[in-house]
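quick one before i forget lol
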Amino acid sequence: MSNVKVRFAPSPTGMLHIGSARTALFNYLFARHNGGEYLLRIEDTDKARSTKEAEAEILASMNWLGLNADKEPVYQSKRELRHKEVVAQLLAENKAYHCYATKEELDELREAAIKNKQRFKYDNRWRERNPNEAPAGITPVVRIKAPLDGYTKFNDLVQGEIKVNNKEIEDFIILRSDGTPTYMLAVVVDDIDMAITHVIRGDDHLSNTPKQIILYNALIATCPEFAHIPLIYGADGKKMSKRHGATAASEYQELGYLPEAMRNYLLRLGFSHGDDEIISDADAISWFNFTNVGKSPARFDFKKLDNLNAHYLKHKNNDELMVFLAAQYPDLTELEKSRINKLLDEIKARAKNLIELKHAILFLRENFGERLTLTDKAQKDIAKLVDQQIKIIDFYKEIDSFKHDNLYEKTKIFAEQEDIKLKFIAAFLRAKLTGSHVSPSIFEIMELLEKDEVLKRLSM
C-alpha cells in the first residue's frame, strides 16, 4: 500500500492514557507495515484545559514507548486561521449558514425532546432563513448544511460497514459564537491538509465519523479510510479507569515495566496472530493488519502483563540493565558492580519488573548487612534455627574454601551430622545474607560475598 499517512492526535489535557498509547502503537505499526508515514498532531484547541506540562508528559511517554513520530508535531491551535478560512469558504458556497437560535430556543427544543422521549436534534430553523431576521444582540454560530435524506455510509476496517440515516444527523456547529472552530471541523481540515490516508482511533469516535464524512464531501475532499478499535476494559468488563490500577503510560514506566513488554502487551489487547503471545517488534510490523483486530473490547490483565514483562526482563541485555542499576545507585562500587554482574542472569530471571530487580540486588552491596531488613518469611526462617546460630557460624569459620561446590558438600555433611534438614539451613543462610526467602543459589552467593562478609552477616 503506497503513500500511507497516519496520525496520532492526543489532546494535552492530561497524561497519556494506556488506551491512547495503544492507539499510537496501532498507527505506528500500520505505517511501518506499509512503508508509510506516522505523524503526530497535538490537538490543543481546548485552551482552558490544555497545558504544556501535559504535552511534555505525552511526548515523554511516547519516547519511552519507542513511538516517536516521523516528523515534528503539528499544533492544531496554530491552524485556527486556516480553519476559519474553510468556514468562510463553506459559507460562500452556501454549504453552511449562520444560526441565530437563542439559548432559550434551544432549551425549549431539548425540553420537548425529553418530554417526547426523543433524542435532541436541532431543527434547522435558520438553514434557509434570511439573516436580516436575526434578533438583536445574538452572535451567531456557523452550522454545516447536512444532507436531509439518504444515508452516510463507510466501510470501517475493523467494524465493517457502517450506515447512518442522514435524518439522524443535525446541522452541526462548525464555528462557535466566540469565533473558534469546533473539533469536528478542525480534525477534518487538518487531516485533509496533512494528506492523512487512514484514521485509526478508538471506537468512542465512531459516532463522529458520519459528520466528518459530510464535511469531507462538502469540501470535495477524498475521505480517508477509518479503523475504529475497541476500547480497553478492566477485568470487570468496565471501561479502564483508576479503580482498575494504573491508567497512564508513565505510571507503567514508574512501576518498572519495560517498553518492549508494553508494546507487546498493548498489541495483544485487540490484535491476535494465532497462538502467539511473545511478538517481537519486527514480527509486529510484519504481521500487523486490521483483519486480526477484534471488534470486542479487550480486557486488561495485570497478571498477563507481569508474566510478559518477566519474559522480556529475563532476556534483557545485561549491559543495559547495569546502566539502569547504575542510574538507580550512582554510588555503586566496582566490587558491587562485579558482584551484580556475576549474579544478574539469575536475579533478573526471578524479577517481574525493574523495581523488583532494583531491590533484588541490594544484598550484593557493601555494608548491606548493617541495614538489612527481613521479610516476614525470612524472619521465620531464622527463628527455626536461631538456637543453632553460633554453631552454624563456627562451622563456616572452619571452612577454608568458599567455592560454592565445596560449601554445598560441607553443608550437606553438617546438616546430616546435626540432624537438620539441608533446606532449613539454606533458608536460614538466605535470610541472614539477603534478608529474603528467595534468591539465586545461596552457596553461589556465599562464594561471591566471600568468607569475611558471610561471617559478618551471620553474626548480626
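fyi The mean pLDDT is 94.
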